[in-house]
Write a structure and sequence with these properties.
By secondary structure, the protein is an alpha/beta fold. The chain contains 15 helices and 12 strands. It has a 5-stranded parallel beta sheet, sandwiched between helices. Strands 6-7-8-9 form a 4-stranded mixed beta sheet. The chain has a 3-stranded mixed beta sheet with strand order 10-11-12. The longest helix is centred in the first third of the chain and has 28 residues. About 35% of the residues are buried.
Length: about 325
């Protein structure tokens, strides 16, 4: 019976060994990341400067496990405001070198720095003066000698018992790629609003939605003046279907709000003949148009230990420009 066909061992000793192996791998990789952090020097800044000056795209390439990390780096760059793509080095030698333009830059990942499949890409970069950033573990390798800037990983053993499977090395590459992406993000002043534009789907996109993205605007706004009789104000509430009406003064500033609760409180006092100014509740809760929708939902839910409400007026310069209902947040996936 070969090692690959060995029956699974479910004994307590086997479980203990598995746990020890898992912790050993994580500890070894954590130590390597610490060493990587300490090893960062001026070359990192030079690499970021070269990449920040690129007017085209950043092309990321690598073979095998390094290639998988390269794909992730290209994806991270693209999602944080730096146009990027992955080019497979093997495919590059068969026509995909045409995907690399003169105004691009290339980041090449190779643990050994001598990956044969990268040779054509390296030669292409040298021939057409395309900036080349190397990410490797071998100083003095073919890749580092050809690169404009070489980011050399510190010496650290792989986490597997044989010291062969790419583990620690790929973890360091992954972290170094993230460091590059974030440094470029900060250089460019990339904001959460920019992030939301590139991440419109899923829970992440929903969490980054702004109030302005989902609010209702004129002519849907339920508004009236303080002298409006309640018979007319109630009609506005009914037509707009937000369960409230905002009360604005002559200068358009929101001075109060009338909700179903206000109607019930004044039901026995000749409500229909009263004015909106007499019935309204002053200083209503409001929200900014650029606030996150999640923040607005928190305000409606009474995050400040206030009574929950179902609608918020959206205010700019103290004037209502929109209204947001709790159902708008729920429909957008904000929860």
């Amino acid at each position: 019976m070969t090692a690959t066909n060995r029956a699974p061992d479910h004994t307590p000793d086997a479980a203990k060994q598995d746990l020890e192996a898992g912790r050993r791998v994580i500890d070894r990789e954590a130590e390597a990341l610490g060493a990587l952090s300490q090893a960062l020097d001026g070359s990192f800044g030079q690499a970021v400067a070269v990449l920040a000056a690129v007017t085209g795209r950043i092309v990321v390439t690598g073979m095998g496990k390094s290639g998988h990390v390269a794909r992730k780096l290209a994806s991270t760059l693209a999602s944080t405001g730096t146009p990027a793509l992955f080019v497979h080095p093997g495919e590059a030698s068969h026509g995909d070198l045409g995907m690399i333009a003169p105004d691009d830059a290339v980041i090449a990942l190779s643990n050994s720095g001598g990956t044969a499949e990268l040779s054509d890409t390296i030669a292409y970069c040298r021939r057409f003066a395309v900036p080349l950033i190397a990410m490797t573990r071998r100083r003095g390798s073919v890749l580092t000698e050809a690169a404009n800037v070489a980011l050399v990983l510190p010496e650290a053993p792989e986490a597997c018992p044989m010291g062969l499977a790419p583990t620690t090395s790929t973890t360091m590459m992954l972290a170094l790629g993230d460091a590059i992406a974030v440094a470029l993000l900060e250089r460019k002043g990339f904001t959460s609003q920019d992030f939301q534009v590139l991440h419109p789907g899923g829970a992440l996109g929903s969490s980054l939605l702004r109030v302005a993205d989902i609010m209702h605007v004129a002519p849907e706004l339920p508004l009236c003046g303080p002298e409006t009789v309640m018979a007319e104000a109630i009609l506005i509430m009914t037509e707009r279907r937000f369960g409230c009406v905002g009360v604005t003064g002559r200068n358009g500033v929101l001075s109060g709000i009338i909700t179903d609760g206000d109607l019930r409180r004044h039901m026995a006092t000749g409500l229909l003949s009263m004015t909106a100014g007499e019935v309204m509740t002053g200083q209503p809760r409001t929200v900014r148009p650029q606030a996150l929708a999640a923040e607005a939902l928190g305000i409606m839910n009474g995050v400040r230990k206030e009574a929950p409400v179902t609608s918020l007026f959206v205010i700019e310069d103290d004037r209502p420009i929109g209204i947001l209902h709790i159902h708008d947040c729920l429909r957008a996936g904000v929860a």
